[in-house]
Amino acid sequence: MKIVKAAEFTVEIDQRNEQLIDLDFDRNVLTIINDVRMNGDVALHMYTEKFDGVTLENFIVTDDEFDEAYTLVSETFISSLLKAKQRITDFHVEQKERSWFIRQEKGVVLGQQVTPIERTGIYVPGGKAAYPSTVLMNAIPAKIAGVSHIAIATPPQPDGKVNPHVLVAAKETGVECVYKVGGAQAIAAMAYGTETVRKVMKITGPGNAYVARAKKWVFGDVGIDMIAGPSEICVLADETANAAFAAADLLSQAEHDERAAAICVTTSELFAGELMTEVEMRLSDMERREIASRSISDFGRIIVVESMNEAIEVLNKIAPEHLQIMVDNPMATLPYIRNAGAIFIGPFSPEALGDYMAGPNHTLPTSGTAAFSSALGVNDFMKKSSIIHYTEEALKEVADDIIVLAEAERLTGHAESIRMRKGEAE
Amino acid sequence: MKIVKAAEFTVEIDQRNEQLIDLDFDRNVLTIINDVRMNGDVALHMYTEKFDGVTLENFIVTDDEFDEAYTLVSETFISSLLKAKQRITDFHVEQKERSWFIRQEKGVVLGQQVTPIERTGIYVPGGKAAYPSTVLMNAIPAKIAGVSHIAIATPPQPDGKVNPHVLVAAKETGVECVYKVGGAQAIAAMAYGTETVRKVMKITGPGNAYVARAKKWVFGDVGIDMIAGPSEICVLADETANAAFAAADLLSQAEHDERAAAICVTTSELFAGELMTEVEMRLSDMERREIASRSISDFGRIIVVESMNEAIEVLNKIAPEHLQIMVDNPMATLPYIRNAGAIFIGPFSPEALGDYMAGPNHTLPTSGTAAFSSALGVNDFMKKSSIIHYTEEALKEVADDIIVLAEAERLTGHAESIRMRKGEAE
C-alpha cells in the first residue's frame, strides 16, 4: 500500500491504457476461432483435450449430472442462493423498459418497440474457483428480459464435470443448457454454432484474457456485454470512517486478482495512516494472501487530498468499478459522482454485499470504463425497434424538406421516393 | 433482382457471416493506431497527406471557416435542416432515462443514477458525398444526454476544407470542435488524444472499412456505437401494396452502396412480378444507377412466401435494418416483428422519411445485428451507476447468506468483510 498525492496519482491513471496492442496474441485467439468455425465439434474436442486436459464424450451437461449436483451442495447454499435470486430479481424487474408510442402531430405516430434477444450465452469461468454468482447476475436479467434460450459455457474440471454450485445456480435461474466448453473455443462455438452448441445472438460473462479477446473478435457478429479488465474498488473516506471496515473491503477486492486495484481517497492524513496499518495487519491473516499482497503492493494506493471537492474530482477521473462512500453524510456526495459502476453508501454497504445479495448487478464496468459504460442489466438482453408511421398528409408536410436534405447529400434516389409520393398526393 | 423462395433465401442468410477474419487487414489498421498513439499530431499530418492528399497547418476548423460555410449553403437547406433538427429532438427527448431510487424494505435503498458521458466524438465520412444528416443523428442525442464536449472528425476535401453542409449542421447542433482528420487515424486520435485532438470517452458514427476496424480495436479503451456493415431494406408487401412505391424505396437503399441489400418479402406472386418490372424500369433513370444496379443484381431479392406467418418468420430471421410494412392493416403485424432496426408502417412512411425527418435515429443495426442491438439513442450517451445503501440492521438480515455464497466461491476475504460488520452489530 502506498500513500500518494492526487497529482502523482492522476499521472498513473492517465497511463492506465498506455499498453499498445499486440497482434501475436490475437493470432492465437483467431486460430482457435477460425478452427471452431470450420471444424465445429471436432475442434471443440481437440481444444478441450489440449487446454482442459479432459476427453469428453458429450459437451452437454445431462439431467443426471444436474441431479447429482443437488446432492453435492448444502441446503444452506441453496437457501442463500434463492434469497440472492429473489433480491437480484426484485431490483432488475425495475429496470425493464416498456415499448411506447407517441402521436406527435396529426397523422404522425412514432415509438419504440422493445423486444427480448432470442438466444443468449453466458460464459462462466471455471478453473480453481466456481462462480455461481456469475450465473445469477447474467441469467436473471436475461430471464426478466424474456430471452427464450439461455445457455452457459464453462470449462470442465479435470474429472470432466462442472462445479455443482454452478449447475444448481443454472437450474434455479432457468438456464436451458450448460456446455462443458471453455476459453476462446467456447466463445467461438456460441457465436457461430457447432453441431452441438447452438448459435446465440449475444454473449455475456467474465473470462480470462483468451475469452476477453475472443469476445472482442466475435463482437459485431454477435453482441457482447463488455471487455472486462482488472477489477477495482475505490473507498472515499474522511476522518469519520472506520479503518478496519475500509481495510477489509479493500482486501476483499485485492483477493480477486493480482491485477486488481484497491484504492482509497481520503481527506484525512490520520485516516490514511490507520488504514495502512489495518491493511498490513489483516493481509497476513488472509487465505488468499499471496494474490492479495501482490495486488496491494502493485496497485494499492491511498490518495490523500486537500478537500472533498478534490476527492470527488479524483474519483471521477478514476471512474471506479466499485465506489464505497464512507464519509459523514454520504448521500450528499451522490450528485457529484459522475463516473462509477456501482456506488455503495455508508459503512454497512460493503462491496461484498453488492457482489452477492444487494440486488443490483455485479457485472460492472472496470478499469475506468465506467466513464462510458454501465452495469449489465435487463436492457442488455433487449433491443429496440423504432416505429414510424406517417399518413399521406403528414408526409406531404415534410416532403420538400426531405428532398432538400437528400439532394444536399446527393442521394437523389431518396429524393425520388418522396417526390413520387408527393405527386400522388396532389 | 431475383425472385426466390423462402427456403432458398434462408440459406443465404445463414451464410451472411461466413467470411473468416483476416489479420492482414488488421495489421494495417493497427499500424496507424499505434503510430497515432506514439507520435500524435506528427502521425496525423503524415496520414492526412498520404490518404487525403492535403497538407494542413491546423486540423481544427476555424470560426472563419464556419462563417464561410454559412455563405455556401442555401437558405432552404438551413431551414430544412432546422426542421429536421426539431423533429429529431422531439423524438429523442422521449428516450431520456431518469435516475431512480427505490426503498425495497426497511433500511435498504437501491437505485440507478443516470449521468451523461463527458466527451464524445462523432466520425462523419467525407469523400465523394457529405452527410449533414449524420451530424444531426449523432449530435442531437448526445446533446440531449447532456454530453458537455461533442467533437467531430471528418476527412478534409482536396482543398483542405470540410463540406459546408456538414459544418452548418455541426454548428446548429452545438458541436464544440470539428477536426479535419479522417480514417483510422481519426479514430485513434479521438480514442487516445493527440496534442490537437482531445481524447473522448465514446466514438460514434459510420465510416469505411478502416474506420470500422479501428473502432473495433479501440473499443474497450473508449465506447463505440456499433460496427456498421452494409445497410439493408426489407419491404413486406401483399397484393394491396403499391409496386412503384416499393420499387422506389428499394432503389433508395440500393443507391447507398454496392453492397447494400434491397429485399422484398411478399405473399403475392403477382406483386413480385410487378415489382420486378418497376425496379428494372426505374433503375435506368437513376443518377446513381451504377451503384444501385450492382446492389440490385448482387443482393436484390424478392422472396415469395405462402402466408403472412411465413413472411414474418423470414423477416425475423433477416433482422433488417429498415423494415417497411406495406400490407393491408400494417399495424396488426407489429407485435410479431421481433427483429428490425426501424419499422416503417404504411405506404407513406418510406425509408427516406426516417433517414432525414421522421424523428427516430437513422443510425440503425445493419446486416442482421438488429437481432441483438438497437438504433443509436440518447442512452448511448449516458451511463448508469447502481446505488446501494444498507443500514446496519439491513445488512445483518443478509449477512449469513453473503458469507455462505462467498465461501462457496472461496472468496474468504469477501466473507470476512461481512463477518466483521456482523460482529460489530451484535
From TrEMBL, chains A, B:
Pathway: Amino-acid biosynthesis; L-histidine biosynthesis; L-histidine from 5-phospho-alpha-D-ribose 1-diphosphate: step 9/9. Substrate binds at S231, Q253, H256, H322, D355, E409, H414. PROSITE patterns: HISOL_DEHYDROGENASE. GO terms for molecular function: histidinol dehydrogenase activity. Zn(2+) binds at Q253, H256, D355, H414. NAD(+) binds at Y123, Q185, N208. Transmembrane segments: none annotated. This is Histidinol dehydrogenase. It comes from Sporosarcina koreensis.
